[in-house]
Amino acid sequence: MLWLREKPLDLRRVRLMGVLNLTPDSFSDGGRYLEPEKALERARQMVAEGADLLDLGAESTRPGAEPVPVEEEKRRLLPVLEAVLSLGVPVSVDTRKPEVAEEALKMGAHLLNDVTGLRDERMLALAARYGVPAVVMHMPVPDPKTMMDHAHYQDVVAEVKAFLQAQAEKALRAGVPQVVLDPGFGFGKLLEHNLALLRRLEEVVALGHPVLVGLSRKRTIGELTGVERPEERVQGSVAAHLYAVAKGARLLRVHDVRAHKEALRVWEALEG
């Protein structure tokens, strides 16, 4: 069970986290949901299609992305967060800035999703103070702009595991009630690294915390399928995510909720 404030999420079933990017420059759907009305409409659509929670982000963390000032990130995020919270589904906030995280948690966000892996102790303190779980994601350095310059590993699975375990233990010691582990597919990782992590995902699952996988529409899917346009990488994304589920992933971060929901229904029926 993942306790999202007053909203427990039973992880005996795989759960879908719908992606809502409030950015002009995200790799897949940047610019589509900048207006609060469009963002809320998209949120409603994903919930109707079966999203169990929504992940709101107002700063692109694609490779090479420029950082967004704190006040600009708040301007994009907070009005949409307020509207989306009214839908009654748990909401995750994707931010690496404590100032943004604090405002979001104060408003009622249910989960803190920090792509830098909770390296900033202020993020730990906030999740502990507000009693919300936090996603610990692996990225070799805490800066998306330069992360691909550091895509060098002796054993990517061992190194990612060691980082996630250390950060998870640090978070729990700081009073964070629960952690979710995310190997960080595509964050400072080449195709070979992503494939190794996916093939050996059960080693991350064995650390004993829920595992979140986010390969939706990513470059890895394009490299494997030859599909250039991110929004057309739906089938490849579903295939990769079902493989992750077979390896023990319990949460999938996805753009295309309906396609994943239908695939999971078939998967669950076959698995009994």
Labels describing this entry:
TIM Barrel, two-stranded antiparallel ribbon, 43% helix, alpha/beta, DHP_synth-like, metal ion binding, 10 strands, folate biosynthesis, 272 residues, magnesium
Question: How would you characterize the overall build of this protein?
Answer:
With 272 residues, the protein is α/β, with parallel strands linked by helices. The protein has one domain: Dihydropteroate synthase-like (TIM Barrel). Helices cover 43% and strands 15% of the residues. The protein contains 10 helices and 10 strands. The protein has helices spanning 36-49, 70-85, 98-107, 121-130, 156-173, 191-199, 201-205, 219-225, 234-246, 257-271; strands at residues 2-4, 7-9, 15-21, 53-57, 91-94, 111-114, 134-137, 179-182, 212-213, 251-254. The chain has an 8-stranded parallel beta sheet with strand order 8-7-6-5-4-3-10-9, with helices on one face. Strands 1-2 form a two-stranded antiparallel sheet. Helix 4 (121-130) links the parallel strand 6 and strand 7. The longest helix is centred in the middle third of the chain and has 18 residues, at 156-173. The chain is globular. It starts with a strand and ends with a helix. The model has no long low-confidence stretch (mean pLDDT 93). Catalyzes the condensation of para-aminobenzoate (pABA) with 6-hydroxymethyl-7,8-dihydropterin diphosphate (DHPt-PP) to form 7,8-dihydropteroate (H2Pte), the immediate precursor of folate derivatives. Belongs to the DHPS family. Its EC number is 2.5.1.15.
